[in-house]
């Protein structure tokens, strides 16, 4: 009867593995990179670095490019 128990355990383990693979099927590394790239909508005019929102862009510009004039689209953004 020991073999019967091993068979059941093996089947359950295989079923879990299939469910896990199916769950991760839509979450490949390439899909994650594409989604992250879509979120980076603002690009610095000086160094071309990409940021997700205007607040971060303004902070970047003030810290990394203090000698340059602030772009017009960032002057009204609250930091």
Spatial order of the strands forming the largest sheet = 1-2
Total domain modules: 2
SSE string, helix = H, strand = E? Answer: HHEEH
Percentage of residues assigned to helices: 55-70%
User: Span between N and C termini?
Assistant: 70 Å
Biased composition (Basic and acidic residues): 55-79
GO cellular component, one term: cytoplasm
Protein name: Zinc finger protein 706-like isoform X1
Domain Small EDRK-rich factor-like N-terminal: 1-40
Itemize the secondary structure elements and their pairings:
Blueprint: H1 2-24, H2 29-39, E1 42-43, E2 50-51, H3 54-64
Antiparallel strand pairs: 1-2
Subcellular location: Cytoplasm; Nucleus
Region (Disordered): 1-34, 52-79
Main location: cytoplasm
Key descriptive features of the protein:
single chain, 79 residues, mainly alpha, two-stranded antiparallel sheet, 3 helices, 2 strands, rod-shaped, MBS1/2-like, Zinc finger protein 706-like isoform X1, cytoplasm
């Amino acid at each position: 009867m020991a073999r019967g128990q091993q068979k059941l355990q093996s089947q359950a383990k295989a079923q879990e593995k299939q469910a896990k693979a199916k769950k991760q099927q839509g979450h490949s590394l390439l899909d994650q990179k594409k989604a992250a790239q879509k979120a980076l909508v603002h690009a610095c005019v000086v160094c071309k670095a990409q940021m997700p929102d205007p607040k971060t862009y303004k902070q970047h510009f003030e810290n990394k490019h203090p000698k340059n004039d602030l772009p017009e689209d960032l002057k009204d953004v609250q930091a």
